[in-house]
Amino acid sequence: xxxxxxxxxxxxxxxxxxxxAHPARGLELLRxxxxxxxxxxxxxxxxxCDQNRFHRYDVWGHTVATVQAVAGSxxxxxxxxxLRCCTTWASRGxxx
Length: 96
Prior knowledge:
This protein has five helices and no strands. By secondary structure, it is an all-alpha fold.
């Protein structure tokens, strides 16, 4: 069913997921339901891809944790996740 959706709709929903308060939950739901393979097939190989002993998570877990951390940084910084936020994020000292 996902493959029948327009790319615009998929992009819109991914934007909402990533700009929300809990993007990690959304990404994990995509993985758990098998939708990740359809919507973001480039990310599917990250699941279970181990890293060296210096890393706490596999590649997927690290990516999900990073996305969630950025979402938390936007809240602290007052960013809304839009393009303006992205271009001014570093100049405000966010993420440092």
